[in-house]
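Hi,

Apologies if this is the wrong queue. I'm a grad student, and the batch job for LytTR family DNA-binding domain-containing protein from Massilia phyllostachyos produced an output file that my downstream script rejects. I'm not sure whether the problem is my script or the file. Here is the sequence I used:
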Amino acid sequence: MPTAIIADDEDLQRIELQRLLALAWPELEIVASVEDGSEALAAIAELAPSVAFLDIRMPGISGLEVARASQGRARVVFTTAYDSHAIDAFDLGAVDYLLKPVTQPRLEQALQRLRAQLKTGSAERTRSLVELDARLRPNAVQERIRWISCTAGNIIKLFPIDEILFFESDTRYTRVVTASDEGLIRMPIKDLLPSLDPDQFWQIRRGTLVCARAIARIRRDETGGFVVELREHPAQLKVGQTYAWRFRGEVLLR
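Support response: The file is valid. Your script probably expects a header line. Output copied below for reference.
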C-alpha cells in the first residue's frame, strides 16, 4: 500500500489536502501530517513514505531543503502559493507541484504521475532544487529584524542581530546569547524564525539556532553526532539528527 506524509505550516491546508487525497486516492495511507520541515525530515527518515507532499515555504527548513536532504527517499510533490514564477521553476524537474488552493482535477493529474512512477518502480529524484530555490527566493523576501529587545531580571537589553551568536528555546522563552551577554525573549524559536535571515542563522536542533559566522568548527562526539563549537563563546551546541544533513560531508575545521 502506498504511503504519504503531508507537511504544511497551515493546519487548514493540511486538512484540506488530506481530504482531497482521500477522495482521489483512497488506497494512499497518510502516515504523518506535520507542520514544519524538521518534522517532515524526521517523518521521512522514520516512516519511509512513498510520497511527500511538501509546502515550499515553512518556518526553519523549507520544503526545498527537505527534498534535497531526503536524497530521493520519497517522491516529492510541492505545494505552493506562488504565481507563474514558481510554476515555471517547477518545470526544471520537480516530480510535480500543486498551486494553492489545490483543486481536485489538478491533484488527480499529479496523482496519475505518482501512480505511474510507483507502478514502474521508478526512482526518479527531484532535480534542480538549487536552481528552484534561487528562482523562488526573490518572491519570498520578508522584513528581517535588526535588533532584539531582551530581558534579564528587571533590565531590558537591546542586542544588534549581528552580535547574536545563538538562540536556545524551550516552549515559552528563548535565550539570546552574544559573546559577552545574554537575555531572554518570550517567544519560541518557531515564531522567531520568519524574522531571521536563514543564511545567517542555521537551525541545528528544534530549539537551537546558531549564527553561521560564529561557528569555529564542527566535531563528532562519542556517539558519532555533531557538536558545534563557537569562536567567541564556550558553549558546545549539539546538532539534532534531523539537522545533521547540513554538515555531512563538509565538516568544518577553521
